[in-house]
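Researcher: Structure for this, please.
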Amino acid sequence: MKEGEGSRRASLQRAVTRVRQFSFVSLRDLLVASGPTLLAVLAVALLAYWWVDPAPPRRLAMATGQFNSAYQEFGRQYAQALARDQIVLSLQPSLGSAENLERLRKGEVDVAFVQSGSSTEGLQAGAETPGADTQGLVSLGSLFTEPVWLFLREEAGVHKLTDLRGKRINLGPEGTGVPRLFRRLLDANGIAAGELRVGALENTPATVELLAGRIDGLVFSSAPEAPLIQMLLQTPGIRLFDFRQADAYTRRLPFLTHVVLPRGIVDLGRDIPAQDYHLIAPTATLVAREDLHPALVGLLVKAAGDIHGKAGWFQQQGQFPSPKYSEIPVAQEAARYYRNGPPFLQRYLRFWLANLFERLWVVAVALAALLIPLSRIVPPIYVWRVRSRVYRWYGELRKVEQALEAAGLDGRAAVRAELLARLDEIEERVNHISIPLAYAEELYRLRSHINFVRERVRGTIDRNGLALPLTE
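Model: Predicted structure, token format:
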């Protein structure tokens, strides 16, 4: 049984040897010659894949706004949009723009809704250059206008802002940015903050207080989609303040725009509202940290287009999102998206697949940079390895010739048998050399040179290959 297994193993080994002897290319030599090159290429490709352009994270944190606010509702829509591309958007409620800016600066969130004019520099001059509180942040575009909604009880008798003196008005918590904005409006009218009884309740409890008559008015700055806005616009006894001097406000405070709430827009059948209302409105901006992955910037801008691109109460179809109306510099990737649309591959492939192919371009460039020069190194190494198996035996032939020369004419007969035995051994080992057919000529040349040296040892030819006379 063991003898049969040994015979089969020997037959298999001889077959493998014959295949190796008659193959056109030596796979072993090819692998040895190209192995270091392949490892170097693989290392560089992995380095390019992970370090030059790392994969985008699968989780993001977004600061939104108060309960029942437009920011909160839009945050849910962004989470749903990003979930389609397997990205988890964690929503973090906040008081509003000022708190959102602070969280962005501290790195607690990656992206947030911020109202224009929320930074100190923006409120002072409507500047387009970033201030100390917006450094390290970039804008992904303006999303929608956020009118200043001043809701009042009808019996309050307020027809202009100067009538607010002595009234109980809720401006909301400082973190919303609304108190700072509304104080600017009061300053423009010569009203000191101490002339009002100011409240700092959040939107929902402030609405309860207004409906109960415990305060005279409250201020929101929100998109009209906010549930509280929709409800108050239709509540009897509650009146929306009309900013008849809206154009003048926009000249004094450049980050504001003048918008009009058309008559009947809320309910045409009931004619709500019963007149056009002039409002002043800052713009909501999607702000991110400047180290946000570029691929996610494009994905967020795409989601913004789907969510905010429709026609609304204060905007036309396609007006938003927009790189305009932003005090914070727009991210380069976002500006490119607004200018050229989504990247080519993302127009036809899902986000992660398109991102993979886009990142593979970096790897392809790295591979090309290595393969072009290395392709000139591997072939010579391969040729040298194959031919070295033949050339090494020329050293043995040279030793035989040197031994023959050292013996001299008188001593050749004494060493002839030994040298012939060495040549027979060399020939036997050469016959077992595995060499590709493309280099078989080298092997046959070696065999002819073995015969040449053998004839020299026998004394039939000289070192030049000329026949010598036979001696007795």
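Researcher: Any notable elements?
Model: Confidence is low (pLDDT under 50) at residues 18-22, 120-130. The first strand starts at residue 59 and ends at 63.
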